[in-house]
Amino acid sequence: MASILYFLVLSLSCSFLFSLSESNYVMNPAYVLVLPTQKDASTGLHWTNLLKRTPLTQVPVLVDLNGNQVWLNCEQHYSSKTYQAPFCHSAQCFRANTHQCLSCPAASRPGCHKNTCGLMSTNPVTQQNGLGELGQDVLAIHVSLGTQLGELFTVPQFLFSCAPSFLLQKGLPRNIEGVAGLGHAPISLPNQLASHFGLQRQFTICLSRYSSSSKGAIIFGDAPNNLPEFHGHPIFHDLAYTPLTITPQGEYNVRVNSIRINQYSVTPVRKISSTTVGHSGGTMISTSTPHMVLQQSLYVSFVQVFAQQLPKQAQVKAVAPFELCFHSKSISEYPSVELVMEKPNGPVWRISGEDLTVQTQPGVSCLAVVNGGMQPSAEITIGARQLEENLVVFDLAKSRVGFSTSPLSSLGLECGDLFNFVNV
């Protein structure tokens, strides 16, 4: 009986302290939080360093727009004075939407405790799943009122998953230790930051195309209103918005009504969705997919129309996984693509030829669009390549996505120019 009472007291105490940590800080509404990102050259995916643990340590993680939570490998090199494993059925577990109890038979360490919560984590590239322990520890992130980064603000009891190390074995950039999930799940990175600091439920991504020293950014908070100008340019002035749909898995979807290539129409997406069993016709926005992916019927039409806009003699042998490749020097300008959003005369997401092609060999460029087969997870997946060097605003409070109608390059800017990330 005494042991049961002891457990209840500890559980209630942890829950009380957790609730205090989520409500005792309201940040200046003019502030935003900024996380620098970098592109991995070998995979085309983007990653960031999270500042976690005590003492604070840089932890390299993949940026996963649709991930449900932050998950890290705790089996190797995880050392922290402030790590805690919430008891099963505690308030933290309910917040993470997990009701599974987990007990590790080995000696206690981060990721291995008795009577904790089990949480499933996913490698977003391979889709492999693994069960781990719900943990909480310090997370720190820079605040900004402009292009200069300010002090570090901390979340003392940030919730995340200690995932098994085998999830890191395939598909991810080298030296990555986990995943930063930005999806619309209860303990995703944006939702925890918004809850803890009282931020507007909104974040903006600006991914750098360049994989050397250039750093893009994820901006948490109301960037369009709080950061109206960068280096004298009103970079958010031409945003167009389209409704945002959240799937049951917490993924971000928009509705594309049709596609135009140099004003030539491709098969409307709504016709495909009406004949494809088990799909809603939604378009997924993804950072864990390097290139655009199209359902097979749409893909065939897309490639055919794209190829018709270019000299046939410029085509060369395909380079897998792409099926349409060209002599780069034979093409002065690639066709531009327009995604007509939501309705026939809805806002248009313009994708330049540069955003749709990649150099696969010296002198050879390919259309960076992949055949997703007959039953992909979405008819269209807008990949990381199409998001690079563009501002994309995820306004969760108003259920909408904002995107630039003209690229940053039209202002002479790149995503790497927005913030001074020296020594970060």
Automatic annotation (TrEMBL):
BP GO annotations: proteolysis
Signal peptide residue numbers: 1-23
Stored PROSITE patterns: PEPTIDASE_A1 (PS51767)
Residue ranges of the TM segments: none
GO molecular function: aspartic-type endopeptidase activity; nutrient reservoir activity
SUPFAM superfamilies xref list: Acid proteases
Family: Belongs to the peptidase A1 family.
Record note on quaternary structure: The mature protein consists of high- and low-kDa subunits linked by disulfide bonds.
Function: Seed storage protein. Has a protein kinase activity. Binds leginsulin.
Name of this chain's protein: SBg7S
Organism from which the protein derives: Vigna radiata var. radiata
